[in-house]
Design brief:
The complex is a heterodimer of chains A (92) and B (301). Chain A is 7% helix and 35% strand. Chain A has 1 helix and 4 strands, in the order ββαββ. In chain A, strand 1 and strand 2 form a beta hairpin. The mean pLDDT of chain A is 96. Chain B is of the alpha+beta class and 301 residues long. Chain B has a 6-stranded antiparallel sheet with strand order 1-8-4-10-3-2. A 3-stranded antiparallel sheet of chain B has the order 7-5-9, with no helix packed on it. In chain B, helix 2 packs antiparallel against helix 4. Chain B is globular and about 70 Å long. Classes of the chains: A mainly beta (92), B alpha+beta (301). At the A-B interface, strand 1 and strand 2 of A face strand 6 and helix 9 of B.
């Protein structure tokens, strides 16, 4: 059976080779449980390093215009990149 | 000390404006820490109606009353939210050890809490504080509160930030008994996973100000530190260690290239509120944006 592993990297700007500022992983193959606050070091220095390690990029956050009146307000992290790897797991 | 309160310094207030959090190791005496833990084991913490003035919230002689009347804690409260704030709520947090979880019939240890901002979307410039009191030593294994310095001015919706697992620059509370953290209400945080041998306790108290939070700390050096604008980018002389602009503009490892600058702008706005100086700026961030044709701006001369 095939299962999906997901890696999300938040980068310093909209370029895939900019540095990682936050990261998350969820493992559909069940090999490892990732929880909030469990790592102090990012798995990759930037998004391209994840590609080179076999992660497939499947979603990128768009660049949205700034709403008038809220241009200097900060909120969620902006530069979100979703990657996947497929893993084979035993039946049952 | 003023009226039994050790007021904060201008440097501490600027650090609070920049980081959204101040740490005060071992400021609560051991007998008060012990009395609080004894109370939890006996009758538990009292319930207090939301909006109760702090001076009427806790019984004379009770451990929580003794905690808030500690001079260092009084100084934190008066400097950040002023005289007689309101008790929004308190809560006695506990992170169970793996042994306790097993004894309670759970098949696995407690997970860490997702990142969140307390309450809900909050767009005020006035701010509440949250005091986190650790009445016993917290080791790294015990999963002390995780928090993100500098995240307090981000307008987000509570657990919507739970998607982030790890953020560059995140910190975990590791502290001696009697330590207190003072948080801006917007600071991103979450409880850590306790993998130690003992349960971990933390008392959290949220306070609402009833006065404008302007110049409430020890401001004797404030005016002298609100000097003219300094050179930026091309600098020929290093700045002093206690330079106010440098404290306010301290970057964080999680800053994005562009929005990190917006954080600095919003810190300057917060400092204008705290200092009551509507002209204050650090490294020209707001002066540049406020310069419109026909409108006079302050100059270095």
């Amino acid at each position: 059976m095939t299962r999906q592993k997901v890696l999300v990297l938040w980068l310093a700007d909209s370029a895939l080779d900019s540095s990682v500022v936050a990261w998350s992983q969820w493992d559909g193959a069940g090999e490892r449980r990732h929880i909030a606050g469990d790592e102090e070091r990012a798995p990759y220095a930037n998004g391209v390093m994840a590609l080179r390690d076999g992660w497939r990029l499947f979603q990128v956050s768009p660049l949205a215009p700034h709403y008038p009146g809220t241009e200097t307000q900060t909120s969620y992290l902006k530069y979100e990149f979703w990657f996947e790897k497929l893993a084979e797991v035993p039946e049952g | 000390m003023a009226d039994g309160a050790d007021l904060l310094t201008t440097t501490q207030m600027a650090q609070f404006a920049a980081r959204g959090v101040l740490e005060f190791p071992s400021i609560v005496p051991s007998e008060i820490n012990a009395a609080y833990l004894d109370m939890l084991g006996a009758e538990g913490a009292p319930a207090v109606a939301a909006g109760t003035p702090l001076s009427r919230a806790y019984a004379e002689g009770s451990p929580i009353r003794a905690f808030v009347e500690t001079p260092a804690v009084q100084g934190i409260i008066r400097s950040l939210v002023g005289e007689e704030p309101l008790v929004d709520h308190h809560f006695s947090h506990v992170a169970y050890s793996p042994a306790t979880m097993k004894a309670r019939g759970f098949s696995r240890p407690q997970d860490s809490q997702h990142w969140h901002q307390d309450s809900t979307i909050d767009t005020r410039q006035a701010f509440d504080i949250q005091l986190m009191w650790y009445p016993h030593e917290v080791t790294r294994e015990m999963g002390g509160t995780r928090y993100l310095p500098g995240s307090h001015l981000r307008i987000v919706s509570e657990a919507a930030i739970g998607r982030y697992q790890n953020i560059a620059g995140q910190r975990h509370v590791v502290c001696p008994a009697g330590t207190v953290l003072a948080l801006h209400h917007g600071l991103w945080h979450g409880g850590g996973a306790n993998r130690g041998e003992a349960d971990r306790y933390m008392f959290k108290l949220r306070l609402n100000p009833r006065v404008r939070q302007v110049r409430l700390w020890d401001t004797r050096d404030l005016d002298a530190r609100h000097g003219p604008q300094q050179p930026i980018f091309h600098i020929t002389t290093p700045r002093a260690n206690d330079d106010l602009a440098s404290i306010l503009l301290e970057p964080q490892p999680w800053f994005e290239a562009d929005t990190g600058r917006l954080e600095l702008i919003n810190r300057v706005r917060l400092w204008r509120y705290l200092s009551g100086d509507a002209q204050f700026d650090a490294d020209y961030w707001l002066s540049r944006l406020e310069n419109q044709p026909g409108r006079r701006i302050e100059t270095a001369g």
